[in-house]
Every structure is written in C-alpha cells, then in structure tokens.
Amino acid sequence: MKLTKEIKTAILVIASILIFIWGYSFLKGKDLFSSYKNYYVVYDNVEGLSASAPVTLNGLGIGKVNNISINRQGKLVVEVQVKTDFPISKSSLLQVYEPGFIGGKQIAVVPNLEDNIMAKDGDTLQSAIRLGMIAKAGDQLAPLQHKVEGTLTSADSLLTNVNSLLDAENKENLSIAIAELTQTMRTLNSASKTLDKMLATNQQNIDQMMNNLNKTSDNFVKISNSLTEADLAQAVKDLESTLANVNKMMSDIESGEGTLGKLMKDEAMYNNLSAASKELELLLQDVRLNPTRYVNISVFGKKNKPYVAPQENE
Question: What gap in Å lies between CA 263 and CA 259, rounded to an integer?
Fold first, then answer.
C-alpha cells in the first residue's frame, strides 16, 4: 500500500503533537509512561510553599507539588503528585517543612505504618506544618525580646528616677560626700604609710618577739610530750586508790570504828581523856609550886611538909 502525501503529513503532525505533549510533560517533571497518584491536602497557610516544590519521603524525592489553589473558605488546597511503591496510608501526614536556610518549602510524607487503609488516587490527606530553624529561633527569641524590652523599660524608669533625685542640692551633697571620701582615702593611705614605717623600725623587735613566741611554743610542745610520755594512767589509779582509802577512813570515823572514831563518837572516852588531862595539869602545877615535895635533897634530914592539894585555876 502506497502512502499518499496527505497520510504522511497527518502522521508527521500527529507525531509532532505527541512529541510536544511528551516534552511539555517531561519539562514539568511528569512521565507519561509512569503511573502517578494525586493527593490533596488543605492548609491554613502554606508558609511560602510554591508549585513544583519537591515531595519527599524520609528525605527521598517521590513527587512534586502540582497545583495550589484557594477554596471558598479561604483555605489553601495543595495537589501533590507522587510516584512510589511505598504504601501510603489514608491517615498519613503531608507536612510542610523547610529543608535549609536557602531552599524553599517542601512537603514531606509522614506515613502512619499502623494504618492498613491505603490512600487512593484523589484522596485528601491530613496536613501538618513543621517550623523551620528561623521560625523556631524567632519563637525562642520572642520571650527574650519581651525580657529585653522590660529590662530597657525598667532601666529607663531607673534613669528617670535618678535624674529626678539628682537636683542641685543633692548634686552638691554628692560632691561633698565624694570629696570627704577622697579625704578619708588619703588619711587611710597616710596611716598605712605610717604603719609601714613603724613596722620597718620595729622589725628587729618583732623578729625577737616571734622568736620568743616560737620558743614558748616549743616549750609547750615539750611539756605536752612529757605529759604524754608520763604514766598518767597509773598516777590516776594511785590517786583513786588513795582517795578510796581516805573515804574508807572517813567512813570508819563517822561510824565510830577505830581510835579516832571512838574518840569522836564515844562520850565516856572523851570525858576520861578530859579528866586525865585535867589531873595532869594539876600535877604539873603542883610540881611547879612545890618542887621539893617531889625532889628532896636534904643534907641534914629535913622533914617533909604536909601535902596541900593545888587549887584549880579558874
């Protein structure tokens, strides 16, 4: 069968149209010979997401954003086109995120592996937004900004109060106080110099005093060592024994045992001793008054005088 020019021209036009459609789809990132799935997701704010933005799964590119439109409620409807054999459940999230400081927004598929109901082509999935580094930094810096503003306000109030306090009279008083403080510092400096001179003049005496103090300390150390080496335990034991004997002796005296005890407790013995002492006193008095009665040296045989009892001294 011989093709006519008209048939060849038609075939060429159809081929050109198909090549144009394939090239246009290729430039848009769509393969005509591959199976894609389209999902929809609704956002309140797409955070700068644009069409043709990549769609990733765990960082792997699996599609792109096809279209972004606004519905009647003012919501943003995003259509994504994905190509993957990984099962995407109906409860999976399509999360808008920022991959870096320079790159634009992207959409990440966050699958729910516990859900066994798979999403179909044309289903609407749940939306989510993950703040980027700049947004997080802004949220963290917002409280700091409020604190800085509050601090600046307090500082401004403080300066205002200080300015209100520093009137002419207060400034003069402050100047006087500073001058007196300066004079006090000068006096302290002079006293310090005088003290330095005094220490330098009496350095020898101070050294001698320190030497004496060191010797005294050494003597105390020796005394302490002597006391440590002494048998204090035995001395204490002997002292306790002596005190026990003294206590026993005092106890015996109190109970009337022994000579001293009987002397202190026996009234008859006390009376006998008192009478014997009185008789001894009379005897000594008689010997003093009449010595010849007891010692008689007679050459011519002189007779003794009759005995006269001595009288008691009142």
Answer: 6
